[in-house]
Amino acid sequence: MTVQLCVGDLLDQDVEVIVNAWNRNVLPWWLLVPQGVSGAIKRRAGLAPFRELSRKGLIPLGGAVATTAGKLPFKAIIHVAGINMFWRSSERAIRESVRNALCIACEKSYCSIAFPVLGTGAGGFPTDRAIAIMKEETERSSYTGEVRIVRFKN
Fold this sequence. Notes:
The structure is a single chain. By secondary structure, the chain is of the alpha/beta class. The protein has one domain (about 5-150): Leucine Aminopeptidase, subunit E, domain 1 (3-Layer(aba) Sandwich), CATH 3.40.220. It contains four helices and six strands. The chain has helices at about 35-45, 50-55, 90-105, 125-140, and strands at about 5-10, 15-20, 65, 75-80, 110-115, 145-150. It has a six-stranded mixed sheet with strand order 1-6-5-2-4-3, with helices on both faces. The radius of gyration is 14 Å and the shape is globular. It starts with a strand and ends with a strand. The mean pLDDT is about 90.
């Protein structure tokens, strides 16, 4: 398995499943004004994935849960809790988010997955370090499908 780093829009990737950088589901989704990846997903997928996500309950830091993709052309969206209660990210949160998202991808037999660079938006984690952590954790995984890390291009 190889990890591809690309620049572009996560929602335009030709993959089976994408990852949403989410929070721990502490606050109801309708109270939040999703920004970045989550905001883009909400605008293009509609509300269905977020309603489904709210029924999943509290997500542990670094945890991952899958939902349908709403109006998006993917088989699913895997939401990862990459930021803590203070809206900050950490190496541990990024590693566990990647590990748990890839575990779901393995269990569901998804052939390809695209991640945003986790923890770098609202989480405030340095981008280059986050990419290095994500590549490292992906290479440790038993997942054999295609993995893309998508760095957003403004």
